Amino acid sequence: MSETRDAALASKAWPFEEARRVLKRYEKAPPEKGYVLFETGYGPSGLPHIGTFGEVARTTMIKRAFEEISDIPTKLICFSDDLDGMRKVPGNVPNQEKLKEHLQEPLTTVPDPFGEYESFGHHNNAMLRRFLDTFGFEYEFISATEFYRSGQFDEVLLLAAERYEDLMKIMLKSLREERQQTYSIFLPIHPETGRVLYVPMKEVNAKNGTITFDDEEGREWTLPVTGGNVKLQWKPDFGARWAALGVDFEMYGKDHSTNTPIYDGICRTLGAKAPEHFTYELFLDENGQKISKSSGNGVSIDEWLTYASTESLSYFMYQKPKTAKRMYFDVIPKAVDEYHQQLRAYPTQDLKAQLNNPVWHIHGGNVPESTLVVPFAMLLNLASVSGAQDKAQLWGFINRYAPEASAESHPDLDNAAGFAIRYFNDFVKPTRKYRAPTDQEREALEALRSELAAYEGPQDDEALQSIVYAVGRERFDPMRGWFTALYEVLLGASQGPRFGGFIALYGVDETIALIDKALAGELA
Predict the structure, then answer these.
(1) Residue among 194, 292, 311, 183 at smallest CA distance from 236
(2) Would you state the CATH architecture of domain 439-519?
(3) Which residues contact 499 (CB under 8 A, 6 or more apart)?
(4) pLDDT in the model for residue 375
(5) How much is the pTM?
(6) 357/273 Cα distance (integer angstroms)
(7) CATH annotation of 3-179+232-280
(8) CA triple 43-223-225, angle to 5 deg
């Protein structure tokens, strides 16, 4: 066994812990199907969102961890529940009146309101696949419509008819009495209208593999449960899908966690071993409210990628998945800088630390070198004081600080410079608030100006930080008051960068001019 595998088997990183649970399923014999199956599900009633990204990214991290500790082949399936009936018309699509005629029809028979695909379900599936392909995820796509209609689900559906009473017992325990009266695990698809019907069963005939029911007009119908004539309600469908595919692992949000015993019970009743599952906490907005697609609070995928890289988003997703996290625009700069700190640390770490480093899991062990030699937070402050309107202007400062750097040799830095200009204009500039210095702060700023004017050394972070620190140490206890003053008086912010590094980047003469402006009352 290799040293890396030994270390991975002992690693406390959460993807390895989950991967070991999956591996334990096959400690006696490998899977009969020949691979370990990871699944992620998707309801295609709307466009993919940041939760979709998080679910696939995290599942991929566990899959990669599994591949490190086992030679059993793996597969990731993205399953689209596109046979679901359209319950309401989404508010963000055209031709809404036309769609109203198709309520309760499967999404794959509802016309595409955009007029591009054969159905609304096909449109959203295409968006999902484009979304996943953009981020380079490796997956196999399965459409529920195809799964039901092609016969892949038939064996399990016939078994569901045979074990109908046992499956109903599992479901009825979770329902209110009123709902129990009409509930069935089977939802027939009306042969004439094509609508998904929520009607009670008059008979489930296991021998013939049929169901009999009255439609909404009181007409009696008998349909085979196979061939896409019938679909399962969503909770039974969850567990039945696990049984049909042989799913070994699926994660879902905390809002599903109370259904776990139901999903598992359905799967076991249908003769299969329930998969391992992982429940993650939901994202919150800046006010602590749950992020939802319908209310549009929080940060969308497109918004995050307007201001930062995909990798920084993956880093955010890696962090403490079982802890509720606030996801709003202020977290972006921190995620960028922490991601690059971890990249820089990686080559210096021993194997154990590398396997615990988020970047190993983000990049599947093939970890790139960081070329962000100036922190994102520092670039934001540089954009603030320089008034730069494009990244070319920022590069003028960057090249004095790091003459060897260029857009070609330092792509991370080049991208971050563009992101920083955008982020500064949208979020920092509107909230910037300078204040005048107190008498004590004025005297300290004058002393710092004098020290900088007399400085003849190189534009060196440490040397300049020593000057800043020495000026503050003589006048402030605790020192935090001095740095707060620098940020609030000179940068118009409540917090900021290591100030010696900022001076090295912005320039000694430019910083002296900035102090002069503040002392003259031109900033506040």
Answers:
(1) 183
(2) Orthogonal Bundle (1.10)
(3) 464, 465, 468, 483, 486
(4) 94
(5) 0.91
(6) 33
(7) 3.40.50.620
(8) 50
